[in-house]
Structures are given as C-alpha cells and as structure tokens.
C-alpha cells in the first residue's frame, strides 16, 4: 500500500551520498542497509554509477525484497543527493517501482500483511500523485490481462471482462463486435485467423473524447489469446509464452481506460482484435488468398504471421468506420525485432517524423525505451513481389531477415496514407513469464 505524507512509521528510508560517516552502511548501489539503532534503512547513491533513476529503482526493489515492515521513504533526502533529477521524477520513480513490485496480480500466494510505504516529502504534488495512481492501476491491470492462463483468457472472456471493468468509467464508450459484425464489415483477414478456433472472435472498441479539438487517434492492439502458429505450426519451445500474444490489445485498451479515468484531453478510438490462432478443420491453409476489409487481397504465405492480419483489418476499421486522423498499433509481432533489440527496447516504425518525435518526447517522461527501425521502399516492394500474381500483398516474405520491417510495410498499406506508428513489443511485453504492462505509461504521456 502506498501512502502520501501519512503518520510516520518507526522505520524510515533515506538516501545518502556515501558511507564515510557510517562505515556500517554498505557502499554499494542498490544494496539497502538497515541500522536498527538508527531505525533507518540507508540507500547509497553514486554519481559515477548508473543513472539516479536506475539507482532509485534498484534500491527500492531491493528494500521491498528484503524487508516487510512498514516504512517511511524520505523523498527529500533522495533529492538532496541525486543531483540533476527533479523531485517530481523521484516521486514518480519511487511510486511506480513500489506499485509494480508489490502487485500480486493473479498469484495464488496469500498476502498475510500488506506493507505500507509512506512517501514523505515537502511541497505540493497532488496532481502528480493523482496521475500516478491511475496510470499504475492500469499498468497492473494490463499485466493481469497478460498473465491470464490461455484456457481462461479466451476472446469471449477478455471481451466480457473489459466491458464489465470499464462500465463505471465516465465518458468511456465500449462496444463489442462479434462474427456477425466482422462478416458484415468484410474483415476477411481477422476471420481467417479465427477460422480454426473453437472460440468466437471478439473486437473490443473503446471510444473516449475528452477534447474534440484534438486529433482523433486510433489505437489498434493485437489480441491473439494463444498462437499455435496455425498450420505453420510452431515448434514446442516456441509455444512457450504464447498467451502473451494478446499483449498489444491489453496495453492499448488499458491505456485508454487510464486516459478516460484521468479525464485527459484526448480523443481516442482503441480497438482490441481478440481471437486465437489454432489448427482446426476449417483453419486457414498456407497459400490461401483472402480479401481484407480494405479490399486488398492477401496471400497467406505463413499462417504463423497472423498478427499482421488481424491488425490490418483493425487499422481499416478505425480508418473507414471511425475516421481517425492518425493510427498507432501495438503488437507482439515478430521474432526479428527481438533479435535486433532484445528485451531492452520496443521497435518503432513510421514514415512520420512527427509521430516518432512525439513518441520520443513521451518516452523521456515514461522511461520506456524505443528504437526506430526502417520501413524502406524495398520492404514494400518485396511484400508486393512475393504476393504476385495472385494477390496485392503477402503476409510474410520469403526473405526472412528483415521480417519486422516487412510487417511494418505490410501494415502501413492499410493506413490509407494517414500518419501511422507501428510498435513491435515482442521483446518488451513480458519478462520471465510475467506481463510488464509496457506502453501504458508512454501512450498515456503521448496522448494525455
């Protein structure tokens, strides 16, 4: 439990520059020292080590792991020793770290006692605290959606849960589209992915307008509840963690709920494209040609490249039905972005320098890393070449090395010349088999 300037506890956490005055303090970043006589936990900060933000996060995480009693956290002491970082940034880092690290989520472990973390600081920062409370709530909400086991987390389950959980958020309209609506809209790609599933397809549409003068942004999230690869079946080791293939939908919808709850001056249409990708008697076969909602014909070279198919129809939906001004998609889309960036950054693809600049500005505030990767004209040329003469585009090229860029080029074709930003979170969505709620902070900062 996080408290703000409440009645003081017996033990406090303070930040110090070094341990020269008290050699019992461990002179190592990220290693908290409890001196019971002082009733104080000391955290050492060093200017020549990692950034102060990273040091604060590491020190708070270690304190949470090692001590389970109620504590005060002296924010002003952190500010005194962490040169060049604002008090607001310190409060934000401490608050987010505690919220993330103490969230039990779907764990079956019983919490016997909830530890209280009381942030003590001077000055008025209530607006910041209000925002942090909402954003952290929906980061953890996204993580719970991600962590749901795939036998429970079906397309129908997520649609019902999101409708129920969003119903009390003022100004947020939620609509669910099923097979009937998708068929009427000619969403051939989305329905083609769903063809082998025992579960009905669901499209969760969230609309929030806090300021009609703002550009209307379409957020489209990949919601593959489990990805077997379809007839291009994944090897067993590659199926591990495939319940996280719906992470894109989880984060764009969670970010929209946060924006609405915060009454942000934003104009959003968020779409979660929920289905799974399985093998069945009606499942789509490799070499099939399917017509998309946009009217473009797509050659299905690889049924395991299904994410870009559901996103394509989702992008067409927000463009044609909701008349958005710009589009951002989020998806655990390709293994190649993982090879390029590992787990350290999300891949960002766009022809719009303006959208990339806005993303980078938001990233500076959120602390989440992004790295721009290319969409060259050669990428689109290959996507078209490998589809000819049967179709306009292929969902996967025979040249595999740049698949993340081929995927981005494919998706950009459905944006109808609107500014488009593709975020590939294959390497950042989950870590050590746990959802990370990545992008919620950044999308909030970018659109609020």
UniProtKB/TrEMBL annotation:
GO CC, one annotated term? cytoplasm
One term of GO molecular function: metalloaminopeptidase activity
The alphabetized UniProt keywords are:
Aminopeptidase, Hydrolase, Protease
Annotated InterPro entries: Leucine_aapep/pepB, Peptidase_M17_C
Matches recorded under Pfam families = Peptidase_M17 (PF00883)
Q: What does this protein do?
A: Presumably involved in the processing and regular turnover of intracellular proteins. Catalyzes the removal of unsubstituted N-terminal amino acids from various peptides.
Per the similarity annotation, which family is this? Belongs to the peptidase M17 family.
Query: What is the designated name of this protein?
Result: Probable cytosol aminopeptidase
Q: What is the source species?
A: Mesoplasma florum (strain ATCC 33453 / NBRC 100688 / NCTC 11704 / L1) (Acholeplasma florum)
């Amino acid at each position: 439990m996080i408290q703000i300037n409440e009645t003081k506890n017996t033990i406090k956490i303070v930040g110090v520059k070094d341990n020269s005055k008290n050699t019992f303090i461990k002179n190592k970043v990220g290693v908290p020292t409890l001196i019971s006589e002082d009733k104080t936990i000391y955290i050492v900060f060093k200017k020549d080590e990692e950034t102060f933000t990273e040091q604060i996060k590491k020190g708070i995480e270690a304190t949470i792991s090692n001590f389970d009693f109620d504590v005060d956290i002296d924010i002003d002491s952190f500010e005194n020793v962490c040169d060049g970082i604002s008090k607001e940034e310190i409060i934000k880092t401490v608050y987010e770290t505690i919220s993330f690290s103490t969230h039990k989520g779907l764990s079956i472990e019983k919490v016997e006692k909830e530890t209280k973390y009381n942030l003590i600081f001077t000055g008025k920062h209530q607006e910041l605290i209000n925002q942090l409370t909402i954003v952290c709530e929906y980061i953890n909400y996204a993580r719970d959606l991600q962590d749901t086991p795939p036998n429970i987390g079906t397309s129908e389950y997520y649609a019902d849960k999101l409708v129920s959980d969003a119903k009390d958020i003022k100004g947020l309209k939620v609509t669910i589209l099923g097979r009937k609506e998708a068929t009427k809209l000619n969403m051939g790609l989305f329905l083609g992915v769903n063809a082998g599933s025992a579960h009905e397809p669901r499209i969760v549409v969230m609309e929030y307008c806090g300021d009609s003068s703002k550009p209307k942004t379409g957020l489209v999230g990949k919601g593959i509840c489990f990805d077997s690869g379809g007839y291009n079946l994944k090897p067993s080791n590659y199926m591990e963690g495939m319940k996280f293939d719906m992470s894109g939908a989880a984060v764009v919808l969670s970010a929209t709920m946060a924006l609405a709850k915060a009454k942000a001056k934003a104009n959003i249409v968020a779409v979660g494209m929920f289905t799974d990708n399985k093998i069945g008697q009606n499942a789509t076969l490799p070499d099939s040609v399917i017509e998309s909602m946009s009217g473009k014909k797509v050659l299905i070279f690889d049924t395991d490249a299904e994410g870009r198919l559901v996103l394509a129809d989702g992008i067409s939906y927000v463009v044609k039905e909701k008349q958005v001004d710009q589009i951002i998609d989020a998806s655990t889309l390709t293994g190649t972005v993982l090879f390029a960036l590992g787990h350290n950054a999300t891949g960002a693809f766009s022809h719009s320098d303006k959208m990339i600049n806005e993303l980078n500005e938001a990233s500076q505030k959120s602390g989440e890393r992004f790295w721009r990767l290319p969409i060259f004209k050669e990428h689109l040329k290959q996507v078209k070449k490998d589809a000819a003469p049967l179709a306009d585009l292929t969902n996967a090229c025979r040249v595999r090395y740049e698949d993340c860029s081929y995927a981005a080029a494919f998706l950009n074709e459905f944006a109808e010349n609107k500014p488009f930003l593709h975020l590939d979170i294959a390497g950042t969505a989950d870590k050590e088999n746990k959802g990370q709620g990545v992008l919620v902070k950044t999308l909030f900062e970018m659109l609020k």
